[in-house]
Design brief:
The protein is mainly alpha-helical. The protein has six helices and two strands; from the N terminus they run H-H-H-E-H-H-E-H. Helices cover 52% and strands 4% of the residues.
């Protein structure tokens, strides 16, 4: 009787472990991660003074690094059109 209980417990634990690895092993929203944020999303996240513009002081990350390349009219702000026309970052190459 004890042997059957132990086998059942091990089986249930194994199934639970397999299911948790399967669930968290792959992202279900891979496509969503690949798309860059929209201008409105960037404004919502970075526009600290809520003036509807993105200045170099407000942006962060890769956007800050290439700010001058994106700000083609050199007014100190990134517009929606400038962001749309911005050069796309190069994809990192995978190590095989």
């Amino acid at each position: 009787m004890k042997s059957n209980t132990l086998k059942t417990l091990v089986l249930v634990f194994g199934i639970a472990l397999f299911m948790s690895n399967y669930s968290f092993g792959q992202s279900h929203d891979r496509q969503k991660r690949k798309e860059p944020p929209t201008f409105k999303e960037l404004l919502k996240e970075m526009d600290k003074n809520k003036d509807g513009q993105l200045s170099k002081a407000e942006v962060k990350g890769p956007l800050k690094e290439i700010f001058t390349e994106i700000d083609t009219d050199e007014d100190g702000f990134i517009s929606e059109k400038e962001l749309k026309d911005a050069p796309k970052p190069e994809r990192k190459k995978r190590n095989k």
